[in-house]
Amino acid sequence: MENTDVAQVFAEVADLLELTGGNAFKVRAYRQAAQLVELLPTPVSELWRQGKLTELPAIGERLAAHIEELLATGHYREHDKLLARVPPGLLELLKVEGLGPKTAALAWKRLHVKGLEDFEVACRSGALEKLPRMGPRRVAALLLAIERHRARKGRVPLYRALASAEAIVRQLREVPGVQAAEVAGSIRRRRETIGDLDLLVASLEVDAVIAAFKRAPEVQQLVASGPTRCTARLKSGLQADLRILPPQSFGAAMHYFTGSKSHNIEVRTRAMRQGLKLSEYGVFDREGRRLGGATEEDVFRLVGLPWIPPELREGAGEVEAAAAGRLPRLIEEADLLGDLHVHSEASSDGRSSVEELREEAGHLGRRYLAITDHSRSRPLGLEAGPMRALALEIHRLEAQVRRGPHLLTGVEVDILGDGELDLPLEVLAELDCVVASVHSHFSDSPEKMTRRIVRALRSGVVDVLGHPTGRQLGIRDPYAFDFQQVLEVAREQGVALEINATPDRLDLDDKHCRLAKEAGVRLVISSDAHHASQLANLRYGVWVARRGWLEREDLLNTLPLNQLKRRLHAHRGPPELHAPG
DNA sequence: GCCGTTTTCGGCCCGACTGTTTTCAGTCG
Question: For chain A, N or C: smaller number of CB within 10 Å?
Fold first, then answer.
């Protein structure tokens, strides 16, 4: 049982408690525990073995006992009892926007609604409308929300949401009287997928701002509007929340609306203990006197903390680390000196020439670039002969043209079904950078997948494990394997794990990055570009790395070229593949 | 359910908006 499974059970218990009218604070306790476990970098099973579960904030004796029962048997009694009381279909109702536990429970008790279909019937028949505090407008809104819930493909990848959020913000900055306009919310925290847009404006001219928002080409229609905020549905199907605040509150509002929710609760609780009140309007003392809030730095300073980068604000230990002066110095894009996974038109699907790639990488300030085309198992992938010829060509270019980033020879070699590599070891050993990736048999059993990867890592010629979990956002789930074991072997073999920065891969993800760091495994951030224009994608990988608490020292492609080359070759084995001296 | 610089009992973050009401409950972030 993984952390996400435990988190899911706790979140479901929270929902079930709400539906059955359970204690609201108990509900919150379960929610907090679910969130904590979800974000935990260490497996709960390990903490349980060490007897450290109750050392976690939000986990007391009882929740620890529940976790123990879950780990031992896969379920626990309180959860089962609740499930027996509540029709399972009711849980889906809670995912409909504007439909909460009270309304769902009301429909269940009074109209015997057992799921979304029942609920829709109750809406259309007029039965729901007759219940207390219900009315025609509310029912109409719920019907619309049900439609959207069904149509919604879920969250969108960060890069899509970011583009429209930035476009809207640019337009709002042009409105007279607007002193600042920024993107907040999960986009600012650089979460990999986004559910809605949070936009903030500092201005006293509320009407003008809302009018401009309404006119933005991305906006389809306003769905709610008040004196400080309004909500719109965008043409992309996403929802955007716009808040307008006086400039003196802008910093406090940025902090508040950047979240995450659990981060906010931690900071606010901390403020409260110090006799302060923190809201989106500012920081206030007991008498209600304003102490600050124009900038985010104000807010953090007044509660005795250094400024915390948004990517860390997940309530996953960052407040504690900040208080102790132990915040990481997060990796920045400028720290990356090169790109170690790039495809050229020499094989398969690459569409730019080596020269074009080199030129664009130069514009982006990279100092080195590994050309890592596909091996023979991929359609149009290279056999040993052409692979050697490409390496020679790269050496020739490197010697001939001194301008631009240094070119490294390389390959993205397939890890075959049995864990063999797709080219002879002696060919691979001649190359500067060997990225090994799984491209087939994704549905192997976890045991077999683990054996495949481990065998490849032990070949002695692999430098980097490419897109280690194989996921594609919204398309393909990660394949199942024993990540901890792969980490151990990677450390033992000196193999780095890749953060593939292709915006709908982002593989490794932030949590796996943190695990790798803790296991002492180095990482690389690579674009996996198939066209020169995609070399800029590295920034998406940087954001993942930052969310994974990574620092410059945790990555290999922050090293200068000579150190990188030494590092790539130092771990190569077995010894017979090394030339003596 | 958790937790302790007021507490082992009695608190638990705070505010906005909507649709229903005629003062507020439900939902959201």
Answer: C
Give the distance from CA A358 to its chain's centroid.
Answer: 30
Residue burial A298-307, b: 16+ Cβ < 10 Å; e: rest: bbbebbebee
Smallest CA–C1' separation from A271, nucleotide: B13
* Chain B, protein-covered positions (CB within 7 A): 1-3, 5, 11-21, 25-29
| Residue A446, CB-side half-sphere exposure with 13 Å CA sphere | 8
Residue A75 counted as domain residue: yes
- Rounded CA–C1' distance between A300 and B14, in angstroms: 18
Per-residue pLDDT of chain A (581 residues; tens, 9 = 90+): 888 889 989 999 999 999 998 888 899 899 889 888 887 878 899 899 988 899 888 899 999 999 999 999 989 999 999 999 999 899 999 988 889 999 999 999 999 999 999 999 999 999 999 999 999 999 999 998 888 788 765 678 899 899 899 999 999 999 999 999 999 999 999 999 898 899 999 999 999 999 999 999 999 888 888 888 899 988 887 889 999 999 999 999 999 999 998 899 889 888 988 889 899 999 998 888 899 999 999 999 999 999 999 999 998 889 989 999 999 999 999 999 999 999 999 876 788 999 999 999 999 999 999 999 999 988 778 999 999 999 999 999 988 877 889 999 999 999 999 999 999 999 999 999 999 999 999 888 999 999 999 999 999 999 999 999 999 887 777 888 999 999 999 999 999 999 999 998 999 999 999 999 999 999 999 999 999 999 999 999 999 999 999 999 999 999 999 999 999 877 775 544 444 33
Name the nt closest to A206 by C-alpha to C1': B16
* Domain match, A202 and A314 both: no
CA closest to B5 C1', residue? A273
Question: How far: A101 CA to B25 C1' (Å)?
Answer: 12
Which CA-bearing residue is nearest the C1' of B1? A26
Residue A82 lies in a domain: yes
Q: Tell me, in Å, how far CA of A22 is from C1' of B23?
A: 26
Task: Provide Rg for chain A, Cα atoms.
Answer: 27
Same domain, A182 and A74: no
Both structure tokens of A15? 């929902």
CA of A505 to C1' of B2 (A): 38
CA–C1' distance A281–B15 (Å)? 10
Helix (H, G, I), strand (E, B) or coil at A187: helix
The answer as to whether A579 is a domain residue is no
Q: Which residues pair with A403 in a beta bridge?
A: none
Please state the pTM of the whole predicted model.
0.84
Please tell me which residue lies nearest to nucleotide B25, judged from CA to C1': A133
- CB contact at 8 A, A330 and A502: no
CA of A108 to C1' of B3 (A): 35
- Measured CA to C1', what is the nucleotide nearest A103? B26
